[in-house]
Amino acid sequence: MATLHNLGYPRIGEDRELKRAIEKFWQGKIDEDELKNIGQQLRRQNYQTQQSAGIDLLPVGDFAWYDHILQLALTFGAVPSRHRGSGNSSELTKLFSLARGHSDEQGNHAALEMTKWFDTNYHYLVPEFEAEQQFELGHSPLLEQIDEANAQSLPVKAVLTGPLTFLYLGRFEGQQKLSLLPALLKGYQQLLAKIADKGIDWVQIDEPILALELDPVWQQAFADTYQQLGQNPVQLLLTSYFGSLSIPLSDIAQWPVSGIHLDLVRAPWQLEGAVNEWPTDKVLSLGVIDGRNIWRSDLDYWFDILQPVNQVRGDRLWLAPSCSLLHVPVNLEREGKLDAELKNWLSFAKQKLSELVALGHQLDNEVSEKDRHYLSLSRQVVVSRNQSLRINNPAVRARVDGLTEDDFHRSSEYAERAKIQRQSLKLPLLPTTTIGSFPQTSDIRATRSAFVKGDITQTEYDVFIAEQIDEVIQRQEQLGLDVLVHGEPERNDMVEYFAPYLRGVEQTQYGWVQSYGTRCVKPPIIYGDVCRAEPMTIHWSTYAQSRSNKPVKGMLTGPQTILGWSFVRSDIPRADVAEQIALALRDEVDDLQKAGISIIQIDEPALREGLPLKQSQWPEYLNRAVRAFRLCASVADDATQIHTHMCYSQFNDIIASIAQMDADVITIETSRSAMKLLDAFQDFNYPNEIGPGVYDIHSPVVPSSQWIEKLLVLASEKIPLERLWVNPDCGLKTRDWPETLAALQVMVDVARKLRDKFKNTIN
Ligand SMILES: CN1c2c(nc(N)[nH]c2=O)NC[C@@H]1CNc1ccc(C(=O)N[C@@H](CCC(=O)N[C@@H](CCC(=O)N[C@@H](CCC(=O)O)C(=O)O)C(=O)O)C(=O)O)cc1
Ligand SMILES: N[C@@H](CCS)C(=O)O
Ligand SMILES: [Zn+2]
């Protein structure tokens, strides 16, 4: 009989209970005991949901207060020295302080850096390692959670991120991370021994870096590590996901691990090797239900594939979702407003487990009434999706087919456009701007919530938004910014906002997915051919422009970012979907310029995170991503200045592609790296204009003028002054007004000072 297990369940809660509880704790509205109780209730509920779905082995250790990598760093005492010595504050307070930073008499203790978890929209906190770093096993939430689950007599499988992934994802300035491996392995050995002492048989040891193209040194480190860890009394399920293994399975078969988990959704071709090369006395766990997308599975397809494997492997065959369900929303049942046909096509975390169980039971000839329902729905959906008229839009297809090379090029080269734009825009040297959003205050959120619930009318909501824009424009004029924004008060999210205006795209009401810490997003569902149903931003952009004589940027989210932060149909290539989105945005760019908007920003923060995990696949991806951007931007007249914005990005390895995007201006996050990221632009001789971020928007700390001046001077040594802009790292939606105004005033004042200082050096 196949064993059914799960790799991880969404920790945030069906109603974002975890988010709400943590934020209340931060606000001092509940104490630590109350917060811990809520965490415990959530875990209990999640275990119950999984067990009643029919899952045989439950993941314990998938819960984390803010982020599981942060929690692991703290478990091993891998805490940077600036955060040590916080006296007798609790483990939880230390954890939140590492995640968010804190200030005290000793100064400002900056948070750990946050970055993308592989190619997902989840962010983890980057552990920082120091010379002589030790990894002493300290307080372990995993061990506590095992005790808690044992007390409930649950069938436990411990979940632990593996040492190589932990090390690989951390930062060890200028030094060889692998030199820390022996010390780290001591910590892991201690932890595994304690897990074994608690009577646990299996540990799911997650090593997602196995999906990257690892160099031989890391491959050898894997072999050495698992030789050592495999000697432990607990059985290890070496768990890969997000792609195919980069180490041959036949090599891994020699390591003393008791099982392997393979992601067959992302890399189905791995099955053949697994069947032939993975020893039959070891567990073969196959990830067959998509943990990264929300489509109902084709269970008959999997049944046919798995039946022969099941016959050979019996209880050594385990079945699971492809990866943790952290990346999908919790429960489809809550969605009351989704169209019935589309809803049938979907499956969220809770439903995915039922699909898995139905498949497992069918393989074992033990189908229940509930399983029958899931099996039959799966069959119906395969037919309905193949035949549905809602997917195919001939007009969109014809438009894509009719594209010519000219549609991907601006009329003139950048140098020519820049001359025209300089004359029309008349911007000063070192123009100042912001990235788009201004604080999304609780007033804005509450008013939108009232509107969505029907407590206020459309007119009342519109009046409110207009007032917000008026205020934002007025404040920017008072600050003396040169290029203004409307502040995005009408947008719940930079991606979700666009969904209602796009055909082929649907939006859930409760489909929340954790993005970082307590912050969540509701990814739209792209189910069919995409086109623009109606203008998306013209009303508020032109309204904002009517309130100022300075240019107000039109603000769009780019094709790769809408794609990357949505759940995307799987029946056509993603790049084709991006092209359709680009065409919808192209119409918007054109309408904006016709409506008198002279500067249009097309944000592409997700362009880099969309890179395939295997570097050999980058060129094809980058080519299509750049073309999609150019398709929407190239409708702009020479006089229309196109900006793009990227954050969270290392640019060195993709700088050529960024240049090919041919945006007139790119604004980027650089302040935390003290302008180091600009080196790539300098080395490449990046030809267009750049706005390197001069302060970190993730922190409420107001930057000093000395700091901003230092960064700008550094930037001016790398980028010619006449191509340099001055702006923060990213949008200001998560900040409060007082710190926003104070920081921007410092920024504008420094820009003015340097403008005066430098103006004579420009001919
Ligand atoms: C730039 N980032 C983004 C990413 N992905 C996106 N899809 N969008 C992004 O902006 N990925 C990378 C980064 C991640 N960064 C962030 C930053 C901030 C958030 C965030 O603030 N999320 C909010 C939810 C945003 C939203 O959808 N808001 C809605 C609903 C607000 C809400 O919760 N309303 C309450 C009622 C409020 C009241 O009455 O006071 C409710 O419904 O109960 C809106 O504004 O209407 C968050 O709170 O988590 C995400 C990613
Ligand atoms: N225009 C967006 C970009 C975020 S990456 C904002 O300002 O929030
Ligand atoms: Zn940004």
TrEMBL record:
Family from the record: Belongs to the vitamin-B12 independent methionine synthase family.
InterPro entries: Cbl-indep_Met_Synth_N, Cobalamin-indep_Met_synthase, Met_Synth_C/arc, UROD/MetE-like_sf
Residues reported in the UniProt entry to bind L-homocysteine: I435, G436, S437, E488, D603
Catalyzed chemical reaction(s): 5-methyltetrahydropteroyltri-L-glutamate + L-homocysteine = tetrahydropteroyltri-L-glutamate + L-methionine
Entry binding sites for Zn(2+): H645, C647, E669, C730
Described purpose of this protein according to its UniProt entry: Catalyzes the transfer of a methyl group from 5-methyltetrahydrofolate to homocysteine resulting in methionine formation.
Chain sites annotated for binding L-methionine: I435, G436, S437, E488, D603
Cofactor: Zn(2+)
Protein name listed in UniProt: 5-methyltetrahydropteroyltriglutamate--homocysteine methyltransferase
UniProt cross-references to Pfam families, sorted A to Z: Meth_synt_1, Meth_synt_2
Pathway in which the depicted protein is active: Amino-acid biosynthesis; L-methionine biosynthesis via de novo pathway; L-methionine from L-homocysteine (MetE route): step 1/1
Location of the Cobalamin-independent methionine synthase MetE C-terminal/archaeal domain: 430-752
Gene field: metE
Top-level EC class: transferase
PANTHER family linked: 5-METHYLTETRAHYDROPTEROYLTRIGLUTAMATE--HOMOCYSTEINE METHYLTRANSFERASE (PTHR30519)
Residues covered by the Cobalamin-independent methionine synthase MetE N-terminal domain: 5-312
GO molecular function: 5-methyltetrahydropteroyltriglutamate-homocysteine S-methyltransferase activity; zinc ion binding
Cofactor: how and how many bound: Binds 2 Zn(2+) ions per subunit. Binds 1 zinc ion per subunit.
Keywords noted in UniProt: Amino-acid biosynthesis, Metal-binding, Methionine biosynthesis, Methyltransferase, Repeat, Transferase, Zinc
Taxonomic superkingdom: Bacteria
Positions with a binding annotation for 5-methyltetrahydropteroyltri-L-glutamate: R16, E17, L18, K19, K116, N121, R519, C520, W565, E609
Active-site residue numbers: H698 (proton donor)
Enzyme Commission number, as recorded: 2.1.1.14
Biological processes annotated in GO: methionine biosynthetic process; methylation
Amino-acid positions noted as binding Zn(2+) 1 in the UniProt annotation, renumbered to this chain: H645, C647, E669, C730
